[in-house]
Amino acid sequence: MDKALEKFGNDIAIAFSGAEDVALIEYAKLTGRPFRVFSLDTGRLNPETYRFFDEVEKHYGIRIEYMFPDAVEVQALVRSKGLFSFYEDGHQECCRVRKVRPLRRALKGLRAWITGQRKDQSPGTRSEVPVVQVDPVFEGLDGGDGSLLKWNPVANVDGKDIWNFLRAMNVPINSLHAQGFVSIGCEPCTRPVLPGQHEREGRWWWEDAKAKECGLHKGNLKEDGAAQVNGNGATTESDIFSSQSLVTLSRTGIENLAKLESRKESWIVVLYAPWCPFCQAMEASYVELAEKLAGSGVKVAKFRADGEQKEYSKNELQLGSFPTILFFPKHSAKPIKYASEKRDVDSLMAFVNALR
C-alpha cells in the first residue's frame, strides 16, 4: 500500500465496496500518506451499506468519491426489461450499466487503482490474482492497452487475517456481516451464506459459480476470449455500443458501404466482439464520440465481426484484432484503419477531424 501511494500519489485511488475493503483504507491511513477512495453507488445497495459508508467517512475524516450510473441508461434498461431481469437472463447486463460503465469513467482519470481482491475469495476466478498487474480490461488516464495498473495488496492474505486485523484496529464494519453476509454487493443479488458455504456463494446464487464476477474484475475469467457460442457461431454475450447515435450495420450494410466510391457522408465504423474486454473498455468513449458527431456529416457505426463474420472481416475489412476502427472518407473508396491503441474520445475525434 505504501509503495502504491508513494509511486502514484493523486493518480491512484482505493476502490471501496462497503465490505471488508475498509482494511484497505486502514492500511492507507497507517502509511501517513494522502489517499483517495471511490465507490460505485448502483442505487440498489442495502440501507446498512449506505450507513456504513457514512460511518467510514466520519471515522477517517474523508470524502468518498461516489460514481453513479447514467440515469438514461438505467431508465432504458428498467423500462424495457423490468427491475429484476437479471434473475432470468444473468446479471451481466445490469452490472454493466450500474457498475462497469461508472467504474470505467472513474478509472479514466487514474493511472492506477487499488482493490481488495484476495485469492481465497473466489477459487473459480481469483485464485491467481497477482499483487500488481497491468489491468487487462480497463484503460487509464493516458488511454490504450497497459495504461492502467491494478494493485491488489491483500491478494495473498487469508480472509481470517483480514478480519483479525479489522477487529484489532476497531474500525467501522458493515452491520450486514453480523447477519451472515460475507461478500456484499447490491441488495437483490446478495444473500447470507450458510455455515460451510464459500463467501461468494452469497452472490448471484442462481448462476454458474465459475462466472461470479460482475465485470469489475472480468479479466480474472479465463474464458473471456472464448465466450459461449451458439449454433450459428456467434457469441451469446449481450451486445455493447448501445446508443441512438450509433448505426448498427448488418453484413449487407457494411458490404454496400465498402463498395461505394463516393459517399454522401463520411463514416467511422468499429469492428467489434461484445465479449472482448478491449471493446468493452472503449464503449463509453465510442458512444460519446457518436453523440459528439451527431449531425456533423460523419456517421458513427458498429459492425459485429466475430463468429461467422470474422473471416469476411479479416479478408475484406482489415480486421486484425478486436476492436478494429475504420474510417470511410466521403470521396474515397478505401477505408483508413485507425492504428493507435489510444481509444479515448479525444484521440478518436482527432483521427476523424484529420480525415473528414
TrEMBL record:
Coiled coil: none annotated. InterPro entries: PAPS/APS_Rdtase (IPR004511), PAPS_reduct_dom (IPR002500), Rossmann-like_a/b/a_fold (IPR014729), Thioredoxin-indep_APS_Rdtase (IPR004508), Thioredoxin-like_sf (IPR036249), Thioredoxin_domain (IPR013766). PROSITE patterns: THIOREDOXIN_2 (PS51352). Keywords: Iron, Iron-sulfur, Metal-binding, Oxidoreductase. Transmembrane segments: none annotated. GO terms for molecular function: iron-sulfur cluster binding; metal ion binding; phosphoadenylyl-sulfate reductase (thioredoxin) activity. Pfam families: PAPS_reduct, Thioredoxin. It comes from the Eukaryota. Its cofactor is [4Fe-4S] cluster. One of its GO terms (biological process) is sulfate assimilation, phosphoadenylyl sulfate reduction by phosphoadenylyl-sulfate reductase (thioredoxin). The keyword Metal-binding applies. Residues 235-356 form the Thioredoxin domain. NCBIfam families: APS_reduc, PRK02090.1. PANTHER family: 5'-ADENYLYLSULFATE REDUCTASE 1, CHLOROPLASTIC, 5'-ADENYLYLSULFATE REDUCTASE 3, CHLOROPLASTIC. This is Thioredoxin domain-containing protein. It comes from Gossypium harknessii.
